[in-house]
Amino acid sequence: MTMDHEGLPVAEDDGEKAARAWAAATWLDDFWSVVIAIPALLAFVPGVQDVVSRGFQILATDAPPWYLGALGVAVSWGFARRVGWEPKAVRKDG
């Protein structure tokens, strides 16, 4: 059961319960956490530091803006779903 800011129980409809369960079970934020952590960890491993650095250089200079934007949206959406954020157009309450 969900509690409001005063600690009183708040009724949830089935859709809200399903959305909360789905958001809790999603793996997207975990996936992006690992993807983001890999280059940070590899930057300390001798022998792959140049590869990590070159990869970031390529992303900074050669990746098309639409790709970087899409990547940013995908990562943001993966984390936003964990906290229960939805675009206003998807919400049932307006």
Which structural class do you get from the secondary structure elements?
mainly alpha
Mean pLDDT across every amino acid position: 79
Rounded Rg = 19 Å
Kindly report the spatial arrangement of strands forming the biggest sheet.
Answer: 1-2
Order of helices and strands: EEHHHH
Helix content: 55-70%
The 3D shape can be described as elongated
What is the straight-line distance between the termini?
Answer: 23 Å
Number of strands: 2
Discrete helix count: 4
Protein name: Holin of 3TMs, for gene-transfer release
Keywords: Membrane, Transmembrane, Transmembrane helix
Organism: Neotabrizicola shimadae
Transmembrane segments: 21-45, 65-84
Brief description of this entry?
Keywords: Membrane, Transmembrane, Transmembrane helix. By secondary structure, this protein is mainly alpha-helical. The protein has a domain at about 25-80.
Provide structural commentary.
This is Holin of 3TMs, for gene-transfer release. Keywords: Membrane, Transmembrane, Transmembrane helix. It comes from Neotabrizicola shimadae. The protein is mostly helical and 94 residues long. A two-stranded antiparallel ribbon has the order 1-2. β1 and β2 form a beta hairpin. The chain has a domain of 56 residues. The protein is built from four helices and two strands, in the order ββαααα. α2 crosses α4.
